[in-house]
């Protein structure tokens, strides 16, 4: 789900409407500024930061990954996290503490709007990538692909049938994660190295449902489907996710702003 794919309710840009990892990143950056942190300074341990910000380790690592992508902090494999080298942190410190634009996942959207999510995993397997999938994801044909089918709910209402395909090499933890409760994008952000969804090519079409979709989405033959296809790339412009989302037409609306830049 992209930022333009759903209506933007009142208060969407309030601080408490941002995903928790973005709010944590902003608090950590505020603390670094208040402490007059200098390049090379070591951050507290992850355990200490988890306690300070009252978040999970997954959320903290997603926040650190965002700050790393902005050139504010850097990791050391054996020594923890440090303020970035000269030439990076001073520039970041003088900038406003607004989060970098990011592609928004289903769970991110729900959290930002105070909605509860639930998922029913239909299948989660590792299989060889087809030639077509390999071309889209820029991996070798036959490479390990994580293939996930889920039904997604908002506040107990069934909204979408989702099919995600990701190169397992980007995040090996995908194969061992329970996505009936876990967030796909949070898992990617917590990967080592982090996989930060940055750009999504997104298209939407309307069509009639298949018999299987009618059964899973609990609809009749007259209900239209809105089908969204998304190819998401990470901070290195590398494709990391190919997703097809089949929405109930009565519970989804696509909206976008179109601007003439000339």
TrEMBL record:
Keyword annotations: DNA-binding, Transcription, Transcription regulation
Superkingdom as given in the UniProt entry: Bacteria
Signal peptide, first to last residue: none
InterPro entries named in the record: Bact_HTH_transcr_reg, Chorismate_lyase_/UTRA_dom_sf, Tscrpt_reg_HTH_GntR, UTRA, WH-like_DNA-bd_sf, WH_DNA-bd_sf
UniProt-listed PANTHER family: MANNOSYL-D-GLYCERATE TRANSPORT/METABOLISM SYSTEM REPRESSOR MNGR-RELATED, TRANSCRIPTIONAL REGULATOR PHNF-RELATED
Protein name: GntR family transcriptional regulator
Glycoprotein in keyword set: no
Species in which this protein is naturally found: Streptomyces tendae
Annotated HTH gntR-type domain residues: 18-86
CDD domains linked to this entry: WHTH_GntR (cd07377)
UniProt keyword Oxidoreductase present: no
């Amino acid at each position: 789900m992209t930022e333009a794919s759903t209506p933007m309710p009142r208060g969407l840009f309030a601080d408490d409407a941002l995903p928790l990892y973005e709010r944590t990143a902003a608090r950590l950056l505020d603390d670094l500024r208040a402490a007059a942190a200098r390049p090379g300074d070591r951050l507290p341990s992850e355990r200490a930061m988890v306690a300070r910000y009252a978040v999970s380790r997954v959320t903290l690592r997603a926040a650190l990954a965002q700050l790393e992508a902005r050139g504010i902090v850097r990791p050391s494999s054996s020594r923890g996290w440090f303020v970035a080298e000269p030439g990076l942190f001073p520039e970041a410190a003088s900038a406003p503490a607004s989060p970098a634009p990011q592609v928004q996942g289903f769970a991110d959207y729900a959290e930002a709007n105070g909605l509860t999510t639930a998922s029913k995993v239909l299948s989660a397997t590792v299989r060889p990538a087809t030639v077509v999938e390999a071309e889209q994801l820029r991996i070798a044909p036959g490479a390990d692909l994580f293939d996930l089918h889920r039904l997604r709910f908002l506040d107990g209402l069934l909204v979408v049938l989702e099919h995600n395909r990701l190169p397992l090499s980007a995040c090996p933890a995908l194969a061992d994660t329970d996505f009936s409760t876990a967030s796909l994008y949070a898992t990617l952000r917590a990967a080592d190295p982090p996989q930060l969804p940055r750009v999504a090519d997104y298209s939407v079409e309307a069509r009639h449902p298949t018999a299987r979709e009618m059964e899973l989405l609990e609809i009749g033959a007259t209900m239209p489907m809105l089908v969204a296809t998304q190819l998401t790339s990470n901070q290195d412009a590398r494709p990391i996710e190919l997703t097809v989302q089949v929405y109930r037409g009565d519970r989804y609306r696509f909206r976008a702003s179109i601007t003439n830049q000339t």
